[in-house]
């Protein structure tokens, strides 16, 4: 399998264009199941996760066509009819968000059999709230042998859905199902992440009637059918935040473009508190740090607009060489510190107590071989490698390929010494 080698010490100077958001693109792709007309998505990232979902959608009857159009990378998804309502384990386990095909399948064709996604390294990540929502909309749900069987032969019915905790995936799933339900659905305690606003805009372009996404109450008035549409995927705030942290770590000056500064405001505030300079521009941010060491700052992850859990590992990497002790509390997932022991292999001084990590900054990290267990953890090791003395080699980078488009190219264009070492095809232990 491929690995990534980083030789530390180079500053980053240059421009990085931000790609379309993975976590939005994969929900928008699922929306193609709701109509017999083509859905054209532009600003599409080309990632392992979009490929996984494309494979599953193809099995369900969607033609998936990727091209480079006048608006950049685009994907056209077209499901004249649903040829199968079966999403097998071998495809769903590769990418958990594939589970979100359940709602659109039941909404459009009255039935579905979708594998439960199973566990995940960052936490148990159950799907009980997803099932609660689809059931509230009138589907009969049975669980057998690892599969969800859902049936609504006479269609879904609008309902009030009150989530006991905030869930991005369950809110999106409820929206994806309710757009074709008969009557009005009100989702309370909805997640407010920008990707939900993106989903609302796409669904409304398809003829749906969704209001309130981005607030805790989303109201959906069901329609009998949806049309095709063309929609541009929102910029990836996590990719933008990751490169902002990389610039603060390595020093230099990096301009992030094709993005929206307000999507990473909670990170920008922390970067400034630590001593980096963040200049908001019309289409992104410029992040600078010249010479002096950063200060340790504390943080706690929270739902949007709070500090994103998907940027916690990267910020922890940044804090490994800051001046002082930083306390980092993870509140969204129960096991999202798997990067800490790997950062310690690079010389970081970190102790983890339950949901809190204490990072005592060291003067210098040293390159080593490391591996990661999830996407954001992997990129935190790359960020640490940017300043570690000598060479850092990150293995299991299939995690990185799930969510970062052309990472070596983007960092390399700013002067980072990053290269991919092609694997011999042997699986890693
Ligand atoms: N939860 C439940 N039951 C459910 C659903 C969620 O208990 O039915 C719990 C989860 O276990 C977690 C909390 O609720 O403790 C919040 O999870 P949420 O549902 O909001 O997360 P998600 O939809 O599974 C998405 C992103 C994650 C991101 C989180 C939080 C996608 C594909 N994934 O996950 O992104 O961390 O929201 O913002 O959109 C990543 O990209 O690396 C990633 C993990």
TrEMBL record:
Subcellular location: Cytoplasm
SUPFAM superfamilies recorded: EPT/RTPC-like
Catalytic reaction equation(s): phosphoenolpyruvate + UDP-N-acetyl-alpha-D-glucosamine = UDP-N-acetyl-3-O-(1-carboxyvinyl)-alpha-D-glucosamine + phosphate
Residues annotated as domain Enolpyruvate transferase: 7-411
Catalytic residues as annotated in Swiss-Prot or TrEMBL: 120
One family name in Pfam for this protein: EPSP_synthase
UniProt-listed Enzyme Commission number(s): 2.5.1.7
Top-tier EC class: transferase
UniProt GO MF annotations: UDP-N-acetylglucosamine 1-carboxyvinyltransferase activity
Pathway connected to this protein: Cell wall biogenesis; peptidoglycan biosynthesis
Keyword annotations from UniProtKB, A to Z: Cell cycle, Cell division, Cell shape, Cell wall biogenesis/degradation, Cytoplasm, Peptidoglycan synthesis, Pyruvate, Transferase
Principal cellular location given in the protein's record: cytoplasm
Positions that bind phosphoenolpyruvate: 22-23
Modified residue annotations for 2-(S-cysteinyl)pyruvic acid O-phosphothioketal: 120
Binding site for UDP-N-acetyl-alpha-D-glucosamine: 96, 125-129, 310, 332
Protease recorded as keyword: no
Family to which the UniProt record says this protein belongs: Belongs to the EPSP synthase family. MurA subfamily.
Function comment: Cell wall formation. Adds enolpyruvyl to UDP-N-acetylglucosamine.
HAMAP family assigned: MurA (MF_00111)
Protein name as catalogued: UDP-N-acetylglucosamine 1-carboxyvinyltransferase
Source species: Caulobacter hibisci
Taxonomic lineage: Bacteria, Pseudomonadati, Pseudomonadota, Alphaproteobacteria, Caulobacterales
Gene: murA
């Amino acid at each position: 399998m491929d690995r990534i080698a980083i030789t530390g010490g180079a500053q980053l100077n240059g421009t990085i264009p931000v790609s379309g958001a993975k976590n939005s693109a994969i929900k928008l792709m699922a929306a193609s199941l709701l109509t017999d007309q083509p859905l054209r998505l532009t600003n599409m990232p080309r990632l392992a996760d979009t490929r996984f979902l494309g494979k599953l959608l193809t099995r369900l009857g969607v033609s998936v066509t990727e091209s480079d159009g006048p608006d950049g990378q685009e994907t056209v998804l077209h499901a004249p009819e649903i040829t199968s309502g079966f999403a097998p384990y071998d495809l769903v386990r590769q990418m958990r968000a594939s589970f979100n095909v359940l709602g659109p399948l039941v909404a459009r064709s009255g039935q579905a059999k979708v594998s439960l996604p199973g566990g995940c390294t960052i936490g148990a990540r159950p799907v009980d709230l997803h099932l609660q929502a689809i059931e509230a909309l009138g589907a009969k749900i049975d669980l057998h042998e690892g599969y969800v069987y859902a049936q609504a032969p006479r269609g879904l019915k609008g309902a009030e859905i009150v989530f006991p905790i905030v869930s991005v995936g369950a809110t999106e799933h409820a929206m994806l199902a309710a757009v074709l339900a008969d009557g009005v659905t009100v989702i309370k305690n909805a997640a407010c992440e920008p990707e939900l606003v993106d989903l609302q805009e796409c669904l409304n372009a398809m003829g749906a009637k969704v209001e309130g996404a981005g607030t805790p109450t989303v109201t959906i008035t069901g329609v009998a059918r949806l049309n095709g549409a063309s929609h541009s995927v929102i910029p990836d705030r996590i990719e933008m935040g990751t490169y902002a942290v990389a610039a603060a770590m390595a020093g230099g000056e990096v301009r992030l473009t094709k993005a929206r500064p307000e999507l990473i405001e909670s990170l920008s505030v922390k970067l400034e508190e630590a001593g980096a300079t963040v200049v908001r521009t019309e289409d992104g941010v410029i992040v600078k740090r010249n010479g002096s060491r950063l200060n340790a700052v504390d943080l706690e992850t929270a739902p949007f607009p709070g500090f994103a859990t998907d940027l916690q590992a990267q910020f922890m990497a940044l804090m490994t060489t800051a001046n002082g002790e930083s306390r980092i509390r993870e509140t969204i997932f129960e096991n999202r510190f798997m990067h800490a022991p790997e950062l310690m292999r690079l010389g970081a001084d970190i102790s983890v107590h339950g949901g809190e990590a204490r990072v005592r900054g060291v003067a210098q990290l040293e390159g080593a071989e490391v591996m990661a267990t999830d996407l954001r953890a992997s990129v935190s090791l790359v960020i640490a490698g940017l300043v570690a003395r000598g060479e850092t080699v990150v293995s299991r980078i299939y995690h990185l390929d799930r969510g970062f488009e052309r990472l070596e190219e983007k960092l390399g264009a700013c002067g980072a010494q990053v290269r991919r070492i092609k694997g011999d095809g042997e699986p890693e232990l």
